[in-house]
Amino acid sequence: MLKKELRKKYKDLRQGLTPEAIEDKSLAIANRLLQLDIWDKIYYHLFLSIEEQKEIHTEFILQILAGKDKEIVVSKSDFATLGMTHFLLTDNTKFKKNEYNIPEPVDGLEVPLTKIDVVFVPLLAFDLNGNRVGYGKGFYDKFLSNCKPETIKIGLSFFEAEDKIEDISDNDIQLDFCVTPNKINFF
């Protein structure tokens, strides 16, 4: 399928999820992440959920990271440049929702991309080759392309893989893993 078709399909599928199903699937994904061999790293980049888009609740992952005493990095988006600035999450971090309802840090200690070891990547759909479909602005592809080569890229999805995304471009960055409530996909 084409990205445009996949965006519509998976936005519709998400809209059909009840709050209880989102909670259960989010918890299952967080628990499955514990099976990955990634917990010796230091800096973990985590997206904060857009509740209105029925995204995965990442607070379970946040609790795991905090419990393992990891450095947690969150981003602020710049829609003019389609870039992101990354900040260390601390007890003093204040958040504000932007015009797209993305919770973002107001300010804080900026973290250089060279520090980030693991990135949890939001997505709408993914395929068996580790390609993903996001909302279409390219924020994460741009961000991931500037990370160090050994940065681990982990997609999080309520749904299982599509066979193939037809219209992959040279700018699309592949995932290393994608975790669903039922399994871990290795690429």
Automatic annotation (TrEMBL):
Transmembrane segments: none
Domain of life: Bacteria
Catalysed conversion reaction: (6S)-5-formyl-5,6,7,8-tetrahydrofolate + ATP = (6R)-5,10-methenyltetrahydrofolate + ADP + phosphate
Cofactor(s) required, per the database record: Mg(2+)
Keywords: ATP-binding, Magnesium, Metal-binding, Nucleotide-binding
InterPro entries in the cross-refs: FTHF_cligase, FTHF_cligase-like_sf, NagB/RpiA_transferase-like
EC number(s) per entry: 6.3.3.2
One Pfam family this sequence matches: 5-FTHF_cyc-lig
Recorded family membership: Belongs to the 5-formyltetrahydrofolate cyclo-ligase family.
Matches recorded under NCBIfam families: MTHFS_bact (TIGR02727)
Alphabetical list of PANTHER family matching this protein: 5-FORMYLTETRAHYDROFOLATE CYCLO-LIGASE, ATPASE INHIBITOR/5-FORMYLTETRAHYDROFOLATE CYCLO-LIGASE
Protein name: 5-formyltetrahydrofolate cyclo-ligase
Lineage: Bacteria, Pseudomonadati, Bacteroidota, Flavobacteriia, Flavobacteriales
